[in-house]
Amino acid sequence: MRTTLVWLRRDLRIRDNPALQAAASAGRVVPVFVWSPEEEGEWAPGAASRWWLHHSLKSLERELAERGAPLVLRRGPAAQALARLAAEAGAGAVHYARRFEPASRRQEEAVEARLRSLGVETRAFAGDSLFEPESVRTLQGRPYKVFTPYWNRCGELPAPEKPCGEPGPLSGAAPAPASEALESWELLPKRDWGEGLSRAPTPGEPAARAQLSAFLKRARGYRESRDVPAAEGSSLLSPRLHFGELDVRRVWHEALPLGDAPSRKGGFLGELGWRDFGRHVLVHEPQTPRAPHDPRFAGFRWRRDERALRAWQSGRTGYPMVDAAMRQLWVTGLMHNRARMIVASFLVKDLLLDWREGARWFWDTLVDADLANNTLGWQWSAGCGTDAAPFFRIFNPVEQGRRFDAEGAYVKRWLPALARLDARWVHAPWTAPAELLERAGLVLGRDYPRPIVDHGEARARALAAYGASA
């Protein structure tokens, strides 16, 4: 009976896993995860992502053990680890799902070359996108640089394949190859995470499937509630998709009955499209995590201000909508999408700090930190990306708060010092009358900081800097 290694990467699930299903239908299966952060270089998983990875792998270990095909954990480099394991297990093939980051593609090339030299067959399956990044092209055969025409083109292509479902019975190797202890990898962060990400969702495939079901039950109001941070309007599925606890094709097909046409803006399927577009851009422009797409920003004179950066990171800017979002990030490892846009605009335009500073902070603190999406979002906010908002589109953090958190529920949840302040003043507490501040038990500068910049002055400074660079 044939033995196949299934190299799990960003597909930490059993259901809807084509690589696992194909291996199971051919004989014995040895699922393996290789921890190889050195191969990912500067984009190795950050602290919050490692926390999620630890718990997701723990869940997958339990699920696979119950099915009779224990998960094998090995340290990399991947080519050497898989070659050794193939020899130990007598495996004639290795199955894996493709990834799209530049370092991951180099890793795949090394694995393919090493295993080929040993006579071990390799088979690559579709990655975690609805449409493979290379398959979407303009009529001239070029990649897209703007989302709307890209997504319109996707609507003309064959629909994403339906998910493959359960793999059927799994038969593991006998004896099972040795596995490293997950705890020996020390993925859990040692530093103080405040509440220790205790308010983050539960990682793992079972919790992911339950979360998808819960979202679909309330998703008909998605278009109206998705921009309200205090509401349960967003799907919160991004870490599930990032780590592959859910197949994006499963999410797509289960969301289709909601009546949200794939080409319609503002809907949930369109958000999945943005996720695909990020992968499309990264594959065709692998330099963008470090360099702006728009060459006019190559020499842009960003400010250096460590005190302002630390205030932004710690949620101490004096702008409640910004600070609430940054506190949410620190405690949960997640941040609402509207809030992400607000805090990003504040960093790059109000503070005039380099968008790469923000991208790196998100990389370390988001449980769903994804190189393609993180880069796309930050370049969009800075106005230097492929599908960029103009640089002169500058969010007013006070007005954004009043518009999307009108009652102040989101701000009061994450900034308890402002909990007793009336909604009229909660997004700009420095404008509240002294007697109201006293009644709310709030002393500015002690209980909550005063604004570190004046938004009007900061906006003028940002526009002047952009004008000098344009």
Fold blueprint:
Layout: E1 2-8, H1 18-26, E2 27-35, H2 47-66, E3 72-75, H3 78-89, E4 93-97, H4 102-117, E5 121-125, H5 147-154, H6 205-218, H7 222-225, H8 238-242, H9 248-255, H10 268-284, H11 306-313, H12 320-332, H13 337-350, H14 355-365, H15 371-382, H16 397-404, H17 409-414, H18 434-439, H19 455-469
Parallel strand pairs: 1-2, 1-4, 2-3, 4-5
How would you characterize the largest beta sheet?
5 strands, parallel
Q: By CATH's scheme, which homologous superfamily of the largest domain applies?
A: DNA Cyclobutane Dipyrimidine Photolyase, subunit A, domain 3
The fold-level CATH name of the largest domain is: DNA Cyclobutane Dipyrimidine Photolyase, subunit A, domain 3
Strand content: 5-15%
Order of helices and strands: EHEHEHEHEHHHHHHHHHHHHHHH
Number of domains: 3
Strand neighbour order, sheet with most strands: 3-2-1-4-5
User: Helicity level, as a percent range?
Assistant: 40-55%
Would you write up a description of this structure?
With about 475 residues, this protein is of the alpha/beta class. It folds into three domains: about 1-125, HUPs (Rossmann fold, 3-Layer(aba) Sandwich); about 130-160 and about 205-285, Alpha Horseshoe (Serine Threonine Protein Phosphatase 5, Tetratricopeptide repeat); about 295-470, DNA Cyclobutane Dipyrimidine Photolyase, subunit A, domain 3, CATH 1.10.579. It has 19 helices and five strands. The chain has helices at about 20-25, 45-65, 80-90, 100-115, 145-155, 205-220, 220-225, 240, 250-255, 270-285, 305-315, 320-330, 335-350, 355-365, 370-380, 395-405, 410-415, 435-440, 455-470, and strands at about 1-10, 25-35, 70-75, 95, 120-125. The chain has a five-stranded parallel sheet. Strand 1 (about 1-10), helix 1 and strand 2 form a beta-alpha-beta unit. Helix 3 (about 80-90) packs parallel to helix 4 and helix 13 (about 335-350) crosses helix 15 (about 370-380). The N and C termini lie far apart (about 65 Å).
